[in-house]
Amino acid sequence: MITIQEVGTEILNGNPRNFYIFGGNEYGIKMKYVSILKKHYNDNFECYDSVMDLIHFMRTKHFIPLVPTLYVVRYDDQFVSALDDGTANVLKNTNIIGTIICIYDNDKQLQKLDKQFPDNTVSIGKVSDKYIEKYLKDDFPDIPDNCIKIVTSICTDYSNAVNICNELNWIPKIDLLALKESDIKSSVFIPDDGTYSNKVKKCIASRNYSVIVQALESYHTTLDNFLYDILSTLVELEKLNCVKSDSELLPYIKRWKIPDIYNMFQWTYQILNEIRTTSVSPKERIMFLVSLMQFSEIPGVNELNGL
Amino acid sequence: MDFKNQSNALIQLKLLSDHNTHSILIDGVAGSGKTYIATKYAEFLGIADVHVISSNVNDIRECIESSFTLTNKILFIVENADLGVSSVFSTMLKFLEEPVDHVYIIVTCRNIQYVPDTIISRCSTVSIIPPTDDDINTYAKSKDTARFDDLHNMKLWKILKSFSDVDYIYSLNNENLNYIENTSIEWLKKLPISNSMWRLNHFQDNSQLPPEYKVRMIMEGSKNKFVKDICLDCLNDLQKTNIASHVVLAKFAFEIKYAVEDFK
Q: CA Rg, chain B, in Å?
């Protein structure tokens, strides 16, 4: 069996083998390697249900030469149960154009596979905190180090850490710097609709294009509701302009002058009306709204319509 | 009781009953007496069995299915079909196209623009105009003369546009009547939008107030053309119902507060 360090070095250096068998229960690292290899093969990526079908495909003569591709086969139990010296030899003598990755998580299956393919099998178990921290820093460059450290200390494994970071990634950086361990734990492990809605509102109030787009991409209900979230954010910002009160949107109030709030409200209302009465694409119209937020002074509805 | 706004519609319905018309669409603003004149159609045809149903698919389906088992004449009145979802229309379509002999159906709507052509083309359309001031007074007197004497000199009497408005105003206690009566727009300039939204559709005891009354009072009390236009837009949007009423009110409050320079 080869070690995870060997495999990691080969993949990260852009020098992968033609065939890997990934075992073990650290799904996050397996997926990280798959994503690196996808990039290595310029997104030439295919999934197969059966290893033998894939081998058959490789051994067939092709009129147009195959492009080096990453092939992933997940949990092909039949291949393991039918595996013998003959099958193993067929695979070893196949000219693989690209890399095949077979993913398993059953230890017994991995032992059997290791006997036939000791130079291709790797058990990817839990990696140390040091590596998790290193990987997270690479994968999430926008998340401050203090948050990465907290995530590393509270996560159960790398895939759990990635999930937490995905969620943190669309919180504005200004807030991330002030986050404490208890904040991260509560935001990640105590799901709450109110909390979720507040996060979306904070993203909108930030006027940060990438943050809003990320919030939009991972929005979990209909896009109509995203428009309602914009409207309620604007109403809350207007209130904060009149009366300074305790609110999660308070840090963003300086980014919104009253004419911006007013014009943005008018635009959002107009687009909500359009979406309800015509067949325009909600996502495109919302992206238009988000782009309007990038103006230092948001233009009025009549101002832009008159152009 | 005869009302001016319904007289033409009733003549038309009488003619349709003479020709034994099975499918009728009645178009008219909220509270103009659409359901009332639909029941008159039953009288013209001598039908005792009248069912008023709301525009939801399950209720309509149930009525259609039950009608096949009956032998007596029956009239279904589907109220405000334009407020229902589009599947309401497809549910009714076959029924309107091939009516059973003993079944009559009247569909009412507040805004014919939201009724598909497929429905309009399969019905005889009867339009009913909004009630006149005289109609409203006649109706109010017939309901409760003493209450009419108390209320008809108030400013709010001018904002009543339909028979259902009269019913609603009659149902209010004096405190709530005065709350509507004393509506002004000065506070809209001072309060945050979120508070204004709340005040526009709630009484002081936090019970619900239909949003159009305060908007109509503001329109009635203002001489500013711009304010009147904002109020009209708001009332139109509230009627359309494609946007939640609290959002329409927020837009209204935003416009009054920030777009009107001198609102007196």
A: 21
Residue A226 CA from chain centroid, whole number: 20
How far is the alpha carbon of A273 from chain B, nearest alpha carbon, in Å?
Answer: 7
Note whether B242 contacts A269, CB cutoff 8 Å.
Answer: no
Among B193, B243, B250, whose Cβ lies nearest the Cβ of A273? B243
Element (H, E) at A287: helix A282-292
CB contact under 8 Å between B247 and A238, yes or no, is: no
Give the closest-approach CA distance of A281 to chain B in angstroms.
17
- Cβ separation B194–A265 shorter than 8 A: no
Q: For residue B74, list its beta bridge partners.
A: B49, B103
Alpha-carbon gap, residue A119 to A17, rounded angstroms? 10
Beta-sheet strands, E only, within chain B: 23-27, 49-54, 74-79, 103-109, 124-127
Question: Regarding the domain delimited by A4-123, which CATH topology (the fold level of the hierarchy) does it fall under?
Answer: Rossmann fold (3.40.50)
Instruction: Look at the block and give the residue holding tokens 């904060």.
Output: A240
Helix (H, G, I), strand (E, B) or coil at A80: helix
pLDDT digits (tens, 9 = 90+) for A231-252: 999 999 999 998 888 888 888 8
Q: How is residue A223 written in tokens?
A: 């896009």
The Cα–Cα gap between B218 and B231 comes to 7
Contact list, B246 vs chain A (CB under 8 Å): none
How far is A299 from chain B, CA to nearest CA, in Å?
Answer: 14
CA distance B200 to B190: 14
Three-state DSSP string of B215-249: HHHHHHHCCCHHHHHHHHHHHHHHHHCCCCHHHHH
Q: Is the pLDDT of residue B188 over 50?
A: yes
- The answer to whether A294 touches B261, Cβ cutoff 8 Å, is no
CB pair distance less than 8 Å for B194 and A269 = no
Domains of chain B (ranges; CATH) run 4-127 (3.40.50.300), 133-259 (no CATH)
- Residues written for chain B: 264
Residues of A whose CB is below 8 A from B193: 235, 238-239
Task: List Cα–Cα distances, B91 to B49, B167, B253, in angstroms.
Answer: 22, 32, 39
Sheet containing B74-79, strands listed edge to edge, beginning at the edge strand earlier in sequence: B49-54, B74-79, B103-109, B23-27, B124-127
Chain B residue with CA closest to A277: the answer is: B242
CA-based nearest distance A288→chain B, Å: 20
Tokens 């080969």: give the residue: A10
The answer to whether the beta carbons of residues A294 and A209 sit under 8 Å apart is yes
What pLDDT digit, counting tens, does each position of A56-108 carry?
888 888 888 889 999 999 888 888 888 888 888 888 888 899 999 998 877 88
Q: Report the half-sphere exposure of B131 (CA within 13 A, side-chain side).
A: 26
Closest CB to A235 among B244, B250, B259: B250
DSSP label at residue B114:
G
- A98-103 vs A121-123, strand pairing mode: unpaired
